[in-house]
Structure formats: C-alpha cells, structure tokens
C-alpha cells in the first residue's frame, strides 16, 4: 500500500499505534464475506473475468480456512484485517487478487464488516436474553407460593408474590430484547459501494451486494455511510440498558442473600469463597454483573464522544469503534449464561420470607381500605389506620393482633370482620388488576410470557465465521 507514495516505512511506535489487526482480526469472516460479494459484483461489471473471479473466490475461501486453522500469520505491518486478507489473497491468487480492491475503499469495507458483525451479535444476544426471561418465568413458577415484602425507599411497603418481583425483571429484559432487535435493524443497511466517501465510479450493483450479504436495505448517502457509527452506539446503548437491569437484579440478590435478609441462597456454582475468612460465601457473580455495568456504559460514552465533533467523512478516530463493540459483546456473552444458571439454582427460604413480613405493619393500608370501602374519605381512613399502627406499636402487637375494642376506640365503624380483612391472602387477592400481584394475575403473566417466548423467538442466524451467507434477508 505504501510502496508507491512513500520513501520510508512507518516508525516503530507509529506502527504500534496504527495497527488494528490485534483486535479487528475478529472481523475476518465478515471481511471475506464482503469480498466474496464484491468480487461477484466486479465480475458482473466485467472488471474481473470469470477466470479471475474464480481465482479470487477460491483464494478468499483458502484464506478463510487458513485463518480458522490458525495457519495464517496476521501481521501488524499490514495494519488491519482488510490488508492482511488482501495480501494473502494476492499471494495465493496472483494478479487477480490485486484487482479485488477496484472501486472499493477500506472505508466502505470496514463499515460493511462492522454492520454485519453488530447485526449478528445483536440477534444472538436478543435470543440469549429470551433464555434469561425463560429462567425468570421458571423461577417464578417454582416458588409461586412465596410472599415477600415489596420495598419502597428500601422500607417494607406491601406484601407481593416473589414471582411478581421476579417478573418485574422479565419485563425489563423483554424491553432489552426488543432494543437489541431494534439495534440489529439499525445495523441492517449495506454501505458497500460508497467508496472512500463519494460513491462508486464503476456503476457497481449495490442491490446485488445487499442481497449477497443479507442486508435489509442499502445506505442512501455515501458520505454518511462511511462515517456513520450510530448503529454501534445503538448496540452499545442496548448493551448498557441490559447491564443496568442485570445490575439491579444483582443488587436485589446481593441484599437477599445477606444474613440480614437471608431470603435466598445462591448456589455454590455461582458463589466464591474468601481467601481469608473461611465462613464466607460471596455473591461475586452478582457483584461482577453490577460492576460490569460501568464498563459497558463507559464503552457507550467513549464511542459517542469519539463521534462528537468529527468532520465528515471517514476519520481514523472511527477505528475506536471496534474494541468498544467487541468488549460489550464479550461482556454480555460472559454474563448471560451465569445469570441463567443463578436463577435456575436459586433457593428461596419460606421461613425467612414469612419473617420479613412480620413487624412491618404491612397491613396498615388494608386497615385504611376497610374504612374507605364503607365510604369514609381516604384521608380520614389514612389517619385512623395511622392511629391503629401507633396503638399496635404501644402494645407490641401486629395490626392483625390488635383487638376489635382497640379498633372501635379509634373509629366505631370498624366491625368484627376487620381481622379477616387484614389477612395476607386478602392483601394479595385484592390487587386484582392487570399488572397487580393477585395470584391469578401473576399466573396470567407467566402464561403470557411463556406464550410470547414460544411464539416469537429471535432467530439468531449463523454465528460469524461459520457460514458465508445468511439465508434470510
Ligand atoms: N482499520 C481501519 C478502521 O478500523 C480501516 C479503515 C481504514 N481506512 C483508512 N482510510 N485508513 O477504521
């Protein structure tokens, strides 16, 4: 690449700075896929003869095998994966290899590679998230009878089914799945044929390229196409939100598994010991899940900052996109199976759940509701219930144990059915609205989730590097 224009090679330090082969080797499969499509388009234009096109095709397939078998020494002197593949192709295919880059730039080439990679990763992750949602639904069903306090301000607020709490995370993850599917759609445009920045000068068939690479559409402006990394930001945003949700779930599990709560036990397979304190069983998987959120958010902020203020069109700053994306992909790939296993093996203590419900006067709202149902204005009923809480505290009793005479002394409209109105079952069953914790509503939601997962699974498509073409568009 330098032999024409330059007298001397790169300095040693610049060579280090310049080379991206250390990380963009991960794009080898997409790069070769893109080149196979490009060779076909060149042949269609008569730029490659049938004979040359065949040599290029066979050469590219051979390069791919060599890379997959670890036989090709990738070199930093050749900067990146694109130049490494081309150099090896030319060594194998001769002069035909030297024609391959006709009308193409690494600018539209790398944009194509990364879009393919991001699209596939996003679909794969969406499918992985569905597995996690399923694990939540299974856990919700397994411990369906467990009632816990729901917290606001980390103070005990109202009794809910543990299943209801778990399904809150299923809702978050459903949104994450949709965000990844959407991010895949954002990446799903073919920039090949945009050249360095102005378009292709040989009238290349961009529709053919789109079709061969399985993109849904083609980009509509060459200058935008080579400098746009919005799709990578969308992917990183989806990753960040997923990690935010994994982090919140982690925090709940960390609290719940502490001796203070004692509500759950995390399986040995997802907990670690202490090098010093023999008694410790630490929720490190959760802490890592929580900790990695900052890392992925950092990748998003990093790339957005790289893009901000870049003049059109391609600038080398854009090379920073890849490590951000790869790191997010790897982080998510590490976490999803661990959290699935954690949910599968989670053990819940019914005794501790019952104990957590004691002493917090969670029935206070039911006391107020009792009067409200008799037509008492809510604010007045709220005051009466507050007095009942105060009286119960004075006597060291739970609201359920406070005698009828005490209730009547506060408000004569309390009847002898007040204690029935304060049962745990009643407090759950009366939340009988869509989205409420009434057992029948929660069962409905579990069924809805399962049907949803059965009905519309994300098709992850072939794993990068394993197949040349996608079957679907
Ligand atoms: N390694 C480069 C990147 O990641 C490939 C594109 C290089 N283009 C260029 N004009 N130097 O962005």
Span of the ends, CA to CA: 35 Å
Ligands bound here? arginine
The CATH topology name of the largest domain reads Fumarase C, Chain A, domain 2
**Can you count the beta strands?**
6
The strands making up the biggest β-sheet line up spatially as 1-2
The string of secondary-structure elements, in order, is HHHHHHHEEHEHEHHEHHEHHHHHHH
Q: How large, in whole angstroms, is the Cα Rg?
A: 30 Å
Question: What does the main sheet amount to?
Answer: 2 strands, antiparallel
The total tally of domains equals: 3
Helix content: 55-70%
Please report the number of helical segments. Answer: 20
SS content category: mainly alpha
CATH architecture grouping of the largest domain: Up-down Bundle
CATH superfamily of the largest domain: Fumarase/aspartase (Central domain)
Look at the structure and give the mean pLDDT.
Answer: 94
CATH top-level class of the largest domain: Mainly Alpha
Strand percentage lies at: under 5%
- What general form does the structure show? elongated
Describe the 3D structure.
It is a single chain. The chain is mainly alpha-helical. It has helices at about 10-20, 20-25, 30-45, 50-70, 80-95, 95-100, 105-140, 160-185, 205-215, 220-225, 230-255, 285-305, 320-345, 350-355, 365-375, 380-395, 405-410, 420, 425-430, 440-455, and strands at about 145-150, 155-160, 190, 215-220, 265, 345-350. It contains 20 helices and six strands. A hairpin with a 2-residue loop joins strand 1 (about 145-150) and strand 2. Helix 15 packs across helix 16. Bound molecules: arginine (ARG). Arginine binds near residues 20, 24 and 106. Arginine binds near residues 24, 80, 107, 316 and 318.
């Amino acid at each position: 690449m330098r032999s024409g224009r330059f007298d001397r090679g790169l300095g040693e330090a610049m060579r280090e700075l310049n080379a991206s082969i250390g990380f963009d080797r991960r794009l080898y499969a997409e790069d070769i896929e893109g080149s196979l499509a490009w060779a076909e388009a060149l042949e269609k234009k008569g730029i490659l003869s049938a004979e040359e096109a065949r040599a290029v095709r066979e050469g590219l397939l051979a390069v791919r095998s060599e890379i997959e078998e670890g036989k090709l020494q990738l070199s930093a002197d050749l900067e990146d994966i694109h130049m490494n593949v081309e150099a090896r192709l030319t060594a194998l295919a001769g002069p035909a290899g030297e024609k391959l880059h006709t009308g193409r730039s690494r600018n539209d080439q790398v944009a194509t590679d990364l879009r393919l990679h991001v699209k596939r990763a996003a679909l794969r992750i969406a499918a992985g998230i569905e597995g996690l949602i399923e694990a939540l639904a299974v856990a919700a069903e397994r411990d369906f009878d467990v009632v816990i306090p729901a917290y606001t301000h980390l103070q005990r607020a109202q009794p809910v089914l543990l299943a209801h709490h778990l399904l809150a995370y299923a809702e978050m993850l459903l949104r994450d799945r949709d965000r990844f599917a959407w991010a895949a759609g954002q990446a799903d445009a073919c920039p090949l044929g945009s050249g360095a920045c102005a378009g292709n000068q040989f009238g290349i068939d961009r529709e053919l390229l789109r079709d061969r690479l399985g993109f849904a559409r083609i980009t509509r402006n060459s200058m935008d196409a080579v400098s746009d990394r919005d799709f990578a930001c969308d992917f990183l945003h989806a990753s960040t939100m997923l990690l935010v949700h994994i982090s919140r779930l982690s925090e709940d599990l960390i609290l719940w598994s502490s001796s203070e709560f004692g509500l759950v036990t995390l399986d040995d397979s997802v907990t670690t010991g202490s090098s010093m304190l023999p008694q410790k069983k630490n929720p490190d998987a959760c802490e890592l899940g929580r900790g990695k959120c900052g890392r992925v958010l950092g990748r998003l902020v990093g790339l957005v900052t790289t893009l901000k203020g870049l003049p059109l069109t391609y600038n080398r700053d854009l090379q920073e996109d890849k490590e951000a994306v790869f790191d997010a992909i790897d982080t998510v790939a590490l976490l999803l199976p661990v959290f699935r296993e954690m949910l599968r093996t989670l053990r819940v203590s019914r005794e501790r759940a019952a104990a957590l419900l004691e002493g917090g006067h969670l029935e206070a709202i039911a006391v107020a509701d009792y009067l409200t149902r008799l037509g008492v204005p809510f604010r007045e009923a709220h005051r009466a219930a507050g007095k009942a809480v105060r009286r119960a505290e004075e006597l060291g009793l739970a609201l359920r144990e406070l005698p009828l005479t005490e209730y009547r002394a506060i408000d004569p409209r309390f009847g002898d059915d007040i204690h029935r109105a304060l049962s745990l079952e009643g407090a759950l069953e009366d939340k009988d609205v869509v989205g409420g914790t009434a057992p029948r509503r929660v069962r409905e939601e579990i069924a809805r989730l399962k049907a949803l997962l059965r009905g519309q699974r994300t098709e992850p498509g072939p794993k990068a590097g394993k197949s040349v073409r996608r079957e679907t568009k």
